[in-house]
Each structure stands twice: as C-alpha cells, then as structure tokens.
Amino acid sequence: MLDLIIRFGIIGILVGQLCFAQACSASGSKREMVSIDAKPESILIDPVRSAVIVVDMENDFAAKGGMFDRAGIDISGAQKAIAPITKVLAAARQAGLKIIYLKMGYRPDLSDLGPNDSVNRIRHLKFGVGQKIQAPDGCESRVLIRDTWDTDIVPELQPQPNDIVIYKTRFSGFYQTDLDATLKKLGIKHLIVTGVTTSICVESTVRDAMFRDYLCVLLQDCMSEPIGHDLPRTNHEASLLNAETLFGWISDSDQFIKALATKSSQAAR
C-alpha cells in the first residue's frame, strides 16, 4: 500500500510539473522577457505582465487654455512629452501591452476634494478647481471636473477602446482608486511610467507602486516638471535620481521602443 501511495505521489508530481511547463510555454513567459537599457542597470520585463501608465496627460495640465496655462505655469515641457509618449503608446499597443490612463478629476460637487481644512482642497481651490471656464473649442467647461474638456486627455494621446481610464483625486494613482486591483487582476508586474508632473503625480504614483512591489521603469523624455525649470537643477532631475536610486529604473522612449522591436525581430526569426 505504501509503495502504491508513493507511486501515485510521484505520478502526481510529474503531472504537476508537466502542467506547469505547458502553462509557462503557453504564456511564453521565458520568450516574452525583453531587456530595456536603463539606470542603474538594464531591466528584464515581460510584456505580457507589463502596462504603460499615462499620468495626467489631460488638458488642464498640458494644453493651452487649461488650468496650468491659465495660472501662468509653463506647459512647454508637458507638450514636448506628447510626441515621445505617442510613439511609446503605438509600440506598446503593437506589442500587446496594456495601456492605463490616470486622470486627475473631481465630482461636480467637489465632494471628493477633501475636508475644508485638507491641504488637497486648500491648494486646489487656489488653482480654481470647479470654476466654470470657456474651453478653447468654445464649449463650457469646469476646471479639473470629471467628464469635461479640462479633464479630457490631450487629443494626440486619446485612449483607445481597449485602454483603461481611471480617475484619481490625489497625486498618487493608487489612493482610493481601482488601480491596484486592476493591475492585480491583469497580472501586471512591470509599469512603464509616463506623464506629468515628474515630482508630484508621477513620483507619488511610483512611490506607491514600489510599496506594492511593482517594478517601475520611468521614461524620462515622456514626463515633465515645471517646478524648478528655470533653476540649475530641476525637480524633474531630482525625482529621476530618487527613482534611479531607490524606487525603480530610468530609461527613455527610444530604449523602450528598441527593446520591443528587438523582441518582435526575434519572434519573426
């Protein structure tokens, strides 16, 4: 009887190993791994388990007539980031990566802005959150309010039907949102991060991602930071140094696209 039990146990182990090997082969986990040239060192990512995160590339932060522009904040850096992000999204979609947009936006009654004495409410009200404006296209809109021109993604980066769009009410994309649950449901481990602003919403999201054991690759030419842009060293550079040292990896759009192209070439061969 003992011998029979042992035999069945061995058979069970072999069957389990076979099933695991078949699952790995089906998912292409080994073949899917690609190397991105980055700092502090290259990083291997699995495109099947990777998502591109687009942080706050909406009209209020990156378009003429938006909240930042109306407040006199330089948006040239955000606008410069649009072109490389466009290329990254095209390459990512072709390679089958998931695209997730994060959008800062509040309910019309500002009930999710925070208590009256919260820093989030006080600082955002100074920027005119909730105020009615006339958008550049002539329609009536409201500053940082959901489902208005102000919180629309800039035209060049419009989400596609299969993309995911998540509203957020704080700097971090993880704060009281479905982002973490969505990533876990999709089996995502690697986050390719783009958007604005580098030291505020991007860094806040990256920090929270690191705390949850996601692996973040920040594409430095796909993000911008107006704070300190006229100083010898900007907050953009400081945040990238933080990420390179402790929170993840730093690369750029060319290296990311090159890595995906190398994978496609290998698959074709």
Describe, in plain words, how this protein is organized in 3D:
The chain is α/β, with parallel strands linked by helices. The protein has one domain (30-106, 153-268): Rossmann fold. It contains 10 helices and 10 strands. It has helices spanning 2-27, 29-32, 59-62, 67-70, 76-95, 119-126, 179-186, 198-211, 235-247, 253-268; strands at residues 34-36, 43-45, 50-55, 98-104, 132-134, 140-142, 164-168, 190-196, 215-224, 249-251. Strands 7-4-3-8-9-10 form a 6-stranded parallel sheet. A two-stranded antiparallel sheet has the order 1-2. Helix 9 (235-247) links the parallel strand 9 and strand 10 (249-251). Helix 5 (76-95) packs parallel to helix 10 (253-268) and helix 8 runs parallel beside helix 9 (235-247). The radius of gyration is 22 Å and the shape is globular. The model is unreliable at 1-29 (pLDDT under 50).
The helix-and-strand class reads alpha/beta
Strand arrangement across the biggest beta sheet: 7-4-3-8-9-10
What is the helical fraction, as a range of percent? Answer: 40-55%
Number of helices: 10
Low-confidence stretches: 1-29
Strand proportion, as a percent range, falls in 15-25%
- By CATH reckoning, the class would read Alpha Beta
Gist of the model:
Helices cover 43% and strands 19% of the residues. The protein is an alpha/beta fold and 269 residues long.
Key phrases:
single chain; 269 residues; alpha/beta; Rossmann fold; six-stranded parallel beta sheet; two-stranded antiparallel ribbon; 10 strands; disordered N terminus
